[in-house]
Amino acid sequence: MEQLLPEYINYWFVVGIHKFIRVFWYFVLFEFTRYILIDFIIAGIFYLKKDQRKKRFEIARQKLRKENPFVSVIIPGKNEGKHLFKLTKSLAEQTFKNFELIIVDDGSDDDTPIIGRNLEKLGLIDMFLRNDMRGGKASAANLALRYSKGKYIVHLDADCSFDRDAIENVLVPFFMDNRIGAVGGNVKVRNYKNSLCSRLQAIEYLKTVSVGRIITSYLGIYKIISGAFGAFKKEATDAVYGWDIGPGLDGDITVKIRKSGYKVVFEPSAVCLTNAPESFKVLTKQRLRWDKSIVRFRLRKHKDVYFPQANFSWSTFFALAENVYYNVVLDILWWIYIIDIFLNYSGSLAFIIPMNFTLYFVMNYVQMCSIYLFSERKKEERYLWPYASMMTIYTGTYLRIVRTVAYYKEFFFKRSFEDPWNPYKSSSQAKRAGL
Amino acid sequence: MFKVLKHSNNHLKISANGYTLMLIAQLSDFEKIDSKNIDGFVIDTTKPKEAYKIITHLKVKTTLKESLKPLFVPSHNLLPKFITCHTDGVLDQSQLAITMERVAVITSKIKDVKLTNTDNYETMVTARVLGFLYTRNQLLTPIVHRQSNIGYTYPVLSLLYKENEALAMLQLAQKIAANGWGNAKLKDHIHLCKGCHGNYFNFREVCGACNSIDISPQDMIHHFVCAHVAPATDFKKEEELSCPKCDKHLRHIGIDYDKPSTIYHCNSCSHEFQQPKMEALCMDCETINGLDELIQQPILELSITQKGEQLLFNTQSKTITKDNNLSIENKCTEALFQIILKQEINRIKTHNCKSVYAQIHLNNPTIKSLNSIAKQAFHNELLQIINSYLLESDIIASESFELYHLLLPNTSFKELERLENIEYNVQKLLTDNIENQPNQVQIKIHNITGSDEVGELISG
Ligand SMILES: [Zn+2]
Ligand SMILES: [Zn+2]
Ligand SMILES: [Zn+2]
């Protein structure tokens, strides 16, 4: 037995479990509990309740079909003209048909207005709204909202495509519980075969977006409906007056809807495919923006949820706290861990570093198993298995560094207000108002 | 230098430099004169209606040569431009010599015009337009004309079409250019009603859903700080603008809000849209035209080309064929060839002159095996070679590359040098391009007599 294992692993058998936990406290306390223990406990509960859940879902689906509510599908965006025709074709394939399609062109400087007007004339788009002056994503979504006639709003990104039953399935949860105000769809990476960067993101999406959201939704602390695919009750979006200035407006409106007393859930069977950035340069830019928004919205704008007040809600508190904890707090703790190891165990690094990698390596594959259990397209996702070995570098190192940079910049310099993602006119007003 | 003479039956003439112009006061004046001795005309009325009748009569009802004779108006500002544009301008009595020089030039140019037989209306119109361009050595420039159905009047050409035939007229102008008889310069594009080909429209914006004209535009407002976007009515509170989302006052456009677009509301069906549908109501026939239904036509300014001049110089045997993509001027259809041949046989019966019928026959299996496009190209090339040796009075007909019918009028057996040239060159073309096969070209010659039968001749 001892001959079969490398020396660095034997070392840990020799020094004993106490020292193991002392040295790998970060892994044992956070990574193992969060990504292995909780995943498999919930997977177990999910498995046991499978039939019951299926039955509830079917009953709700029948209710949806019977009522057949009118739905507004809204797609705000800039320079998305090239995707529009394909998108209308993808939507025409949907099993749910009773919807209007509203496209908002937020000051595009390409052919989008021409394409949009033509599709509108052809009847493929019900309403094409264009603002000659760009106002930012939130204002574009709000414009669509103002002219939506549906009882439900489905918010999409133009470059996404959808499973045939995606819109139907994202609406079903509204008929399971009347208090549900918003439903998040399951966003997966379409171009996972194109580059290493997109493959790693595909695995990441499966872990955090799919599995992560099933679990947080189950625990009632699901906190971010992706802008790529989400459904809202019109009365809920009206109650919160739609979207506020981004970046990170998807998470923001989810919190606002929660705050006004609605439940927010995730629906894994409503699948949408999106294109992930294919180069690390583009990915880094995207993540800096997302990570800054966590500080801006979770810690700054919505800080009231952490304090006792009139409409205090434990689930909203936990939803945000979980988010902050797993991103901001754990990020800080990780750096503390690194310092701890370098200060106290610098002599044993030859045993510690490979063991850490081994632990994460094993954990990644155990996690792939839990993804496999939850997935509704098991076969396609087997393609990604070899790449799971690289996730340690990707999430453990690369994303962590990006995140740290983003938090630092936003926390101390409020850099998100300078993001060209929003027009300056809006950002400067938002900053002054302390949003 | 000049004198105005009283004509025997009360008509006025102006004579100078050996040319005589006739004053025409009303249409009936034409009946009383022998126009053979008249070199041109002067309109002697200030009534536009009468002047128009006179011009129309001269340019449309007379023979080609007669229609080309100079036509002047007495002085400025008495007749509208849409009438004077068909004429040669003002007759200035103080500078009569200059006018008469102009008459001299036109008269001599009219003599060049040989074309008299015009077998259909289009050919007749083409001849009159080209004749006008040639004899006047000027451009055919359409003038804007509010009373015209299409907003423009062409000199001469417009006289030859009724108001409701404007489309045919515009298409003829394009045909003249397409056939290479005229050079065209694009002056304007016009749009015509699908119902009546008129172009007097009321353009208006309507609701795309119900076509109602009762639509009202509204500014869209974007409040920066809260990203709320809605039409201005949502923001209006008495005189103030106040945001329904965040309750703030809107103070300064560009600083805290802007108006990024406009949206229309239909007061008939409540449809809301940004791009109203445009439609054109025809003010003549009340047809509603969608913008994409309007018939777009070019307004062309034409000048005559050498090829156009050649058309005029040919005699009556010359025929303008409609399918002129070959540009073989002596070519006609086989059916027409048979009619002309029959006429020629009849002519020989009575006049006892000599004409030759020739048949060129190619026998080449290689060409037969070519595809239709290559065959057509070969056929065109042969036609051009044969045509280049023919006289203007000769006629050729050929439906396929294998067989060519030729009619050589006023030609005796001794004057068949051109057939020898044709045989030599066609043979050369074949041997240059295809492997040497002797006797590929056979020419049969027949001296036409009064007792010949068309069918027998053609079939060989
Ligand atoms: Zn009309
Ligand atoms: Zn506002
Ligand atoms: Zn309407």
Ligand set: zinc ion
Strand content of chain A: 5-15%
Provide the helix percentage of chain B: 25-40%
Q: What general form of chain B does the structure show? A: flat
Q: What's the gyration radius of chain B in Å?
A: 33 Å
With strands numbered from the N-terminus, the spatial order across the biggest sheet of chain B is: 1-2-3-4-5
Number of strands of chain A: 8
How would you describe what is shown here?
The complex is a heterodimer of chains A (435) and B (460). Chain A has 435 residues and is an alpha/beta fold. Chain A is built from 17 helices and eight strands. Chain A has helices at residues 7-15, 17-23, 25-48, 50-67, 81-92, 112-121, 137-146, 166-171, 196-218, 234-239, 249-259, 280-301, 314-344, 349-374, 378-381, 391-413, 424-432, and strands at residues 71-77, 99-106, 127-131, 152-156, 161-162, 180-189, 229-233, 263-274. In chain A, strands 3-2-1-4-7-6-8-5 form an eight-stranded mixed beta sheet, with helices on both faces. The radius of gyration of chain A is 23 Å and the shape is globular. Chain B has 460 residues and is α+β, with helices and mostly antiparallel strands. Chain B has three domains: 3-145 and 155-184, no CATH class; 208-275, no CATH class; 331-459, 2-Layer Sandwich (Alpha-Beta Plaits), CATH 3.30.70. In chain B, 31% of the residues lie in helices and 25% in strands. Chain B has helices at residues 48-61, 64-67, 81-84, 96-112, 121-136, 166-178, 232-235, 306-313, 334-351, 365-368, 372-389, 417-433, 454-459; strands at 3-6, 12-16, 19-24, 40-43, 71-72, 143-144, 152-153, 182-192, 201-206, 215-223, 228-231, 236-237, 240-241, 257-258, 262-266, 272-273, 277-282, 288-290, 295-304, 331-332, 356-362, 395-400, 403-408, 441-447. In chain B, the strands form seven sheets. A five-stranded mixed beta sheet of chain B has the order 1-2-3-4-5. In chain B, helix 4 (96-112) packs across helix 5 (121-136). The radius of gyration of chain B is 33 Å and the shape is flat. Chain B starts with a strand and ends with a helix. The A-B interface holds A 107, 117, 120-121, 127-136, 138-140, 142-143, 146-147, 241-245, 425-426, 429-430, 432-433, 435 and B 208, 220, 222, 224-231, 234, 244-246, 254-256, 258, 260-261, 263, 272-275. The complex binds zinc ion (3 copies). Residues 223, 225-226, 228, 243, 245-246, 248 of chain B line the site of one zinc ion. The site of one zinc ion has 8 residues of chain B, from loops.
